[in-house]
């Protein structure tokens, strides 16, 4: 049996590869806090590099792809400018939505010395849905091709490292006991939904637009509040390496 057949079915996508990547992303959630890192400084450098790569994916690959898809859709209905604006408005919506969640979580935690179940489940629940969307989109890429799916999966794996670090910082042992399993389950459920359903072009562009804004906020949230702990050179290196690989490999 030829290996290409395992990866591609009816030239519509790479469902086997996407399924394997969904499982791999679930494992990232389960083991993201257990990598052997020598010191907190080294961990911070790694997280900054991962954040840089995630942001590079948004600006180098994701936004140009969804913008082009929006224009194609707009041409069909003679509303090119409106279609492109919707994508960027949804990117803004993703940014604002996660900003709102973070604000609520921080303020509610500030009212109590201990984390409350409501705060924990709100925070973890939102990120479980977020992980499900990311798992779903493994099966529905704007640009067809195994290489594009791989670049997406790598960027999301690095991004999960960043978001899980933030959740673990917020919720401590409770995240390790329960939260990481919920996120892994959300990723797999999203992957199953992606494998079993189809998404038409305009809705796909909207999902990717929302995802772009959410990624940018979640990376900025980890990098900017504690600039003295961030590692700009590592962030720059992560963004640069990912950009070079994405454009020239």
Could you describe the 3D structure shown?
The protein has one domain (40-248). It has 9 helices and no strands. The protein has helices at residues 3-7, 15-31, 40-77, 80-110, 117-137, 146-171, 173-196, 201-223, 232-248. The two termini are 28 Å apart.
Overall 3D form: globular
Number of E-type strands: 0
Mean pLDDT value: 83
Strand-residue proportion: under 5%
In the predicted model, the low-confidence regions spanning at least 5 consecutive residues are 1-12
Structural class: mainly alpha
How much helix, percentage-wise, in residues?
A: over 70%
Distance between the termini: 28 Å
Order of helices and strands: HHHHHHHHH
Alpha-carbon Rg, integer: 18 Å
Number of helices: 9
- Mind describing the biggest β-sheet? none
Number of domains as seen in the coordinates: 1
Question: Mind sketching the topology for me?
Answer:
Layout: H1 3-7, H2 15-31, H3 40-77, H4 80-110, H5 117-137, H6 146-171, H7 173-196, H8 201-223, H9 232-248
Give a brief rundown of this model.
This protein has 249 residues and is mainly α.
Q: Characteristics of this structure?
A:
mainly alpha; 249 residues; 81% helix; 9 helices; 0% strand; disordered N terminus
